[in-house]
Design a protein that fits this description.
Beta-Lactamase; Helix Hairpins; five-stranded antiparallel β-sheet; alpha+beta; 750 residues; 10 strands
């Protein structure tokens, strides 16, 4: 879609107008055509449903008709003549039962042969006239026995047709009759001289007490079903479908009725027993037949293999009616697609033809209108293209008063204003180029002086940094000496404390030695007393004679121990006295050491105080030098920033000069009426600019005052200005301002 839009936008206005004419002309036709096409498709779908409806209606008609045949055979058995047993087995025309059968055949018109047999299978009566009242040869049936026929066996066993595989709910309530599918009955063929193509409807015959006394069978001709097919065909033919064919299928898909008037060239059903009950369409792959046999209803379009044409088919399956179970049959209604879709195709073709005619009319009209309307726009486009190439001397010559004429007038006014603006811009660019050259020269001089000042400050800053480093080193050494002196003082103080503790310990030892000497004296006295007691004990033992000998020995030993204890106590006392003397001497020495250490501590304190004062002075000196160094560094940074700003200003002025030159070159691209035969002056201005830039100008005076600027606010520092260039004429506050305002007003109006 995006690609299509891009292609459309690249077209000319004429092609776009033609395209739009076609779109807005064809879209309604396309909408109508789409509606018609959808209506045609709906008609095609409706045609299929119409043929399905035809098949369903035919099936219902057959079900209702055969339901009457289902009840006929039971009703015939209630006739009073049936109970006239005296006339049973009478083959003559005087048999009243046979006479009744003749009347039934004539009244209903579809029963070719009616037979009543007894419970053994012997014939009781049979009709001897056909539905038209003509005699038939039925005498031979009285000579036959029907006990081996399917219908007789079913009735004998009480088997009745009550339900088929696809019987609809509610249509399985009837009973009492046995139905035989379409077949060729040889007895019917022999009796009537026809083909014997019939169905069989058989039922028991009861007496007054409800006992089965006989069996009645009606051989109903398929002519009745075929007549219903013929009626359905006539209806289709009247609707414009003469090529219709209607087919009746049995439970397996074999053909029972093949009604195709277009093939047989007659509107009557033709029985071809090479096809009937032999050709199986379901097995041949006919989809409609397969669907019908499967009990489904619907419609489809398919190829007829024998005719090699496409047909629209409606199909259904019999489901019974009014309680009657119906037959296990399928019905197909097939119509050539050309006939079936003729109306729908006619509508679609008519709409298509109408659309083509409208397209043939709209296209040349759109082309003419597009070319006519695009002519004036092309003139404006040509002038705009020349203006894009730089030529502003042309104007769009359109005299019409419509919107295109107004557009051309506004465009010409815009070209006039653009020409005036280009001239003003060229003049202003020349002045800007000259002024920017002078500003550039002044900035270069200022940049050189600022760079020299910055270099000198950098040298000063380096010297200050070296001095600061030396002073800081001295301060650090003094600080270390102070720390060592403090440490020495602390060690001396700790030594004094240790010495004092030693003196105290020696004093305590002296006291303890004295206490030990006292204890030794007590031990000596105890030993003396013990010796006396031992002596007294020895005396007493001597008095006792032999009995006290042992005690005397003990007393002797105790006295010896007491003597030894006294001796040891004396020795200990001597050692204690010597120790006390030595401790007293050591205590004197320790006291002398403590006094010496106290003198050392006082001296160290004085040295520490002096070194602390030196360290504090060195630190104050280092802090002052550091502040001076920071101030120098700040001055250096400010100077460097000033130099950078000057360089940026120089670069900006150079860029402005270059841009002014480029602006002059760009403006010279436009050609105006004022320049016809004249030089635009761009080359001269450019040469003047280059000359001004290449030749040095007199340096402007520079203030000797120091440049002071905060380090954290470089943007606010003042920058020296070069002498102001003279203001170009026409760009001042007066004339230039009014001129610019006029141009703005023009563009706002435009």
């Amino acid at each position: 879609m995006k690609q299509v839009m891009q292609t459309f936008l690249s077209w000319g206005i004429a092609a776009k107008l033609v395209t739009l004419f076609l779109i807005f002309g064809v879209l309604p036709m396309a909408a109508v055509g789409m509606i018609a096409y959808n209506a045609g498709e709906d008609m095609k779908t409706g045609v299929g449903m119409r043929f399905q409806t035809t098949a369903v209606e035919l099936a219902n008609k057959i079900d209702r008709n055969l339901s009457e045949r289902y009840g006929d055979v039971q009703a015939f058995g209630f006739n009073d003549a049936v109970h006239r047993i005296s006339q049973w087995y009478d083959p003559t025309p005087f048999n009243s039962i046979s006479q009744v059968m003749n009347r039934y055949s004539a009244a209903y018109g579809i029963y070719d042969l009616l037979i009543m047999v007894d419970t053994r299978g012997d014939v009781i009566a049979a009709n001897y006239k056909d539905p038209n009242g003509k005699p038939i040869n039925s005498q031979f049936v009285f000579e036959k026995n029907y006990s081996n026929t399917p219908w007789f066996k079913a009735l004998s066993n009480g088997e009745f047709t009550t339900k088929q595989p696809f019987t609809a709910p509610g249509n399985d309530t009837w009973t009492g009759t046995y139905i035989e599918d379409a077949h060729v009955d040889s007895d019917v063929a022999k009796a009537t001289g026809g083909d014997g193509y019939v169905m069989g409807f058989s039922a028991p015959v009861y007496n007054d007490v409800g006992e089965v006394v006989a069996y009645w069978t009606n051989r109903a001709s398929m002519r009745g079903v075929e007549e219903m097919f013929q009626d359905a065909y006539r209806s289709l033919k009247s609707l414009g479908f003469p090529g219709s064919e209607i087919t009746l299928l049995d439970a397996h898909g074999r053909i029972l009725v093949d009604f195709d008037p277009s093939t047989h060239s007659t509107d009557e059903v033709v029985r071809n027993f090479d096809v009937l009950m032999k050709l199986n369409l379901a097995e041949k792959g006919v989809e409609a037949a397969q669907q019908a046999v499967a009990g489904k209803s619907g419609s489809l379009t398919a190829q007829h293999m024998r005719k090699q044409i496409s047909q629209v088919s409606g199909y259904t399956h019999l489901v019974g009616a009014n309680g009657f179970p119906g037959m296990n049959w399928g019905i197909m209604v097939r119509v050539p697609e050309g006939e079936a879709l003729a109306d729908a195709n006619s509508v679609q073709n008519s709409v298509l033809q109408t659309g083509l005619i409208c397209l043939a009319i709209i296209a040349p009209i759109g082309w003419y209108v597009g070319r006519k309307g695009a002519a004036n726009l092309i003139k404006v486009s040509d002038v705009a293209q020349k203006a894009a190439n730089g030529d502003l001397t042309h104007r769009a010559e359109i005299t019409s008063k419509d919107e295109l004429g107004q557009l051309a007038g506004a465009f010409n006014a815009m070209m006039d204003n653009l020409t005036r603006v280009v001239g003003d811009v060229r003049q202003a660019a020349e002045h800007v180029s000259t002024g920017s050259a002078e500003i550039t020269q002044g900035n270069e001089d200022l940049s050189q002086r600022t760079s020299q000042q910055a270099s000198a400050l950098e040298e000063t800053s380096a010297s200050m940094e070296e001095m600061t480093s030396t002073i800081k080193q001295n301060a650090d050494n003094a600080k270390q000496a102070n720390q060592l002196a403090v440490a020495a003082r602390e060690v001396a103080e700790k030594g004094g404390a240790v010495t004092e503790n030693a003196v105290n310990a020696m004093s305590e030892i002296n006291k303890s030695s004295k206490k030990i000497a006292d204890i030794i004296n007590v031990i000596d006295e105890i030993a003396f007393q013990t010796n006396l007691l031992a002596l007294n004990a020895a005396v007493e033992a001597a008095r006792a004679g032999e009995q006290g000998r042992g005690f005397a020995v003990v007393a002797s030993e105790v006295r010896n121990l007491a003597g030894r204890s006294a001796t040891a106590a004396k020795e200990i006392k001597t050692l204690i006295n010597e120790s006390v003397q030595k401790v007293s001497d050591g205590s004197d020495l320790v006291n002398q050491s403590g006094q010496t250490l106290e003198e050392i501590v006082n001296s160290v304190k004085r040295v520490t105080d002096i070194i602390s004062e030196i360290s504090a002075a060195s630190q104050e000196q280092a802090a002052g030098i550091d502040q001076v160094n920071k101030a120098v560094i700040q001055m250096d940074q400010s100077t460097q920033q000033n130099a950078a700003l000057v360089e940026e200003t120089t670069s900006a002025s150079q860029s402005m000069r270059q841009q002014a030159s480029e602006l002059l070159r760009q403006v010279s691209f436009f050609k105006t009426d004022e320049e016809d035969g004249e030089d635009s002056g761009y080359g001269k201005v450019a040469q003047a600019g280059r000359a001004a830039h290449g030749q040095p100008k007199a340096k402007a005076p520079v203030s000797s005052a120091p440049v002071v600027k905060a380090a954290n606010k470089p943007a606010s520092a003042p920058v020296a200005k070069s002498p102001q260039a003279p203001e170009p004429a026409g760009v001042g506050a007066g004339n230039g301002h009014e001129r610019r305002k006029g141009n703005d007003d023009f563009f706002e109006e435009f």
